[in-house]
């Protein structure tokens, strides 16, 4: 009996030793770990008033061309200067989007920032002014007057005798250029503008007081080519050979695809 009692105790003891220990419960370790505070080292204090710390050194932000007023604010050498921490344009210049421009003559900033002149204009004394002496304009005038100086066969309209030369007129030129720009921008060729205007309407807008006639063309690569094309067309030839007309405006524009558009606007008053 004593032996049986000891054996039973041994079994009980061994059973206690063989119990599985339950797995530890998952814990959010973050709750037990203090978050480290992020610290930013302050920039060193520069000894002189007006100095700022840039690129590992102190610079005078009042006059520095590379750090004007603040780090990496660069003034453009030759057109501006750093004065009291601000980039200022030299005499005659105007600051536009961080650069200095002469707004009296600059084509893209004529009279003020962002005031862009048309391709047919130049900036003169801060005003966009129509250019009446471009190579294309003078070329068309020259070949037109050469055509008028000789007897021409205008087909169904008969033979036309020589007539006197035409003179360039600024108002007619403005009207002709407006129509050339319209055709190039909207990809069409017609005497009626995209707004429904007629040649006379456009001449009126340009303050031309006389009567007008118009030739238009597209695709010709040069003044001589387009005048030859008009000469070979009966109606266009008749316009060019009319002795009633004494003045001429020429329009020339190039579309985004590179196609060229031409306008002759004849007038008399």
UniProtKB/TrEMBL annotation:
Membrane-spanning residues: none
InterPro entries in the cross-refs: CAP_dom, CAP_sf
Gene3D superfamilies to which the protein is assigned, alphabetical: CAP
Source superkingdom: Bacteria
Entries under CDD domains matching the protein: CAP_bacterial
Region annotation Disordered: where it falls in the sequence: 188-208
Limits of the SCP domain: 142-266
Record-given protein name: SCP domain-containing protein
